[in-house]
What we know:
The chain is of the alpha+beta class and about 325 residues long. The protein has 15 helices and 8 strands. A hairpin with a 2-residue loop joins strand 7 (about 160-165) and strand 8 (about 170-175). The structure holds a DNA duplex (13 and 12 nucleotides).
Amino acid sequence: MTLLHLDHADTLQLPVTGDGPFDILHTLWKPSHYATGLEAHTPGTSWRTFRVGDLTTGVRLRYEDRTVIADIHTNGDYKPHHREHLKKRLNASYGLAEDTAAFTVLAEQVPAMREPLAAFAGMRQSCPEDHFEIAVIALLLQNTTISRTTTMTRNLLTHHGQLVHFDGITLRAWFSPAELAKVSADTLKERDRLGYRAKTLAEFPAFFIQHRSEDLRHENLVEVFQEIKGVGPYTAAVMNSHASRDPSAFGLDVWNRKILARRLFDAPDADATAITRRMNDLFPGHAGTAALYFVEHEYLNAPVAPLLDPDSIGAWNSALENTAA
DNA sequence: AGCCAGGTAATCC
DNA sequence: GGATTACATGGC
Length: 325
């Protein structure tokens, strides 16, 4: 796998137009998220790759005066429509225009939410992935351990994605639906170790080539998503809450079910329907945001993929460049 | 050894 | 409809 060097092409100033406080650190970096190599975070700077059609972009993100400053690096011909796409993509991915007041009013009434709210005031949902990419992530999370999810993600991105270097950082980048379409189900199973997921992942490209992320905006999305083989209620809810940014949606799995059971009922586990009912009662229209705050608070003091010390970026780069060999 | 993971679809009644 | 089961793989 070759290391693709990206050159600086643009700087975008993206104002935070949503109301209330803005927690830039926990909006860009989520303590509960497993390591993918698609992004890297230090306390003051984040780097992330985005696929924009055939273009591969590397973005450095910083924050100053209620503005996200995005330095765009690319491998090819950077056109005005790429700039417009990235502006919208970044604005949506990190909820820069989203208001928090409605959730905050509800959250302040719930004692269990007191600490998460204090720790994360102004945190938005983060989803740099588009619908295709988040569907792949959610598929890899189904009924397995994070250890194996991480392995499968690494295999897929190493074998079928890209490795890029820009602004001193090395990162992985996604494959597009068209690129994944060229990979056989047999390869996904034997080489990428996907098990029974191989057959369903092999059918993802057809749907996402037909349904571009920008076009997935109409109603009944949860039902449309579940037309994809391998996408059930959980994965569809993850797509809806993350890529479509529906603040009322959350995908309930055995992991967050136990976290929410503790927070809501002070019990080690609870019935899924009881949890769903309670979340919707306490946070009508904002249960997904509430679940996000509870889950991230669980990992605040023991992040799955901790922040990088700026001095350790060299080691980060070496590690990624060696796994690609 | 067996059980269980950040589920889903097929098949039963 | 709701309940039950197979499905790949790997860590504990």
